[in-house]
């Protein structure tokens, strides 16, 4: 990523966090004048961080200014950043931040492939750019028909913002917001890469929800999240998804397992989906 683009991304991130805070949240009086824009003013952030208003304004505008660790910590506290957001701010502030997208080895061991094949619940594996490159039968039957999807489209953020996902996922907004936050964390350090730029451009054009949520700069690590699928044959299926950040000692491979939630009849419905003629005695 070029330093100019890096500084712009940093400024956009700070502005997004600033505009989502109210004076009351940080212990400042609301005042009697109506605010023209939502959130805190730049001078209020500078006041809370005990730094120059001019300096903070330049930082948010993407100008080339020197950033110290103490100043970053002060800004983090002023903006009430979470630990994940603070780490993200540090990464965006590094003048040596260059993370070119690399084609890393994406091979799975025979034993892991066998484990996937024998798991009756959906599993899919992605690379560091969240592009799905391996999946099991359950994932194909329940989530998406990955075999029929072009490799370019087999990226989790694209899949979750597809029309198919909106129709079949009952809690789609929750899942889509989660997906965009996970993707944003990776995108911000790869923003100059054509692969990522094309995804954002495509989704900005095709999805009104993406256009609304993308400028918020929400970031999140992969986490356990519930997924409720309305399957055309099996009916309602409820999963608790868990992501493992290392497969076969490869830290660049992520594996997501969708475990059925107890007492939702998901296990029984999946069994009927796999064995439609099997009778229960």
From TrEMBL:
Protein origin, superkingdom: Bacteria
Pfam families associated with the record: HTH_31, MLTR_LBD
SUPFAM superfamilies assigned to the protein according to its UniProt record, in alphabetical order:
lambda repressor-like DNA-binding domains (SSF47413)
Recorded GO terms, molecular function?
DNA binding
* CDD domains the record matches: HTH_XRE
Domain HTH cro/C1-type, by residue range, is 13-86
What is the official name of this protein in its record? Helix-turn-helix domain-containing protein
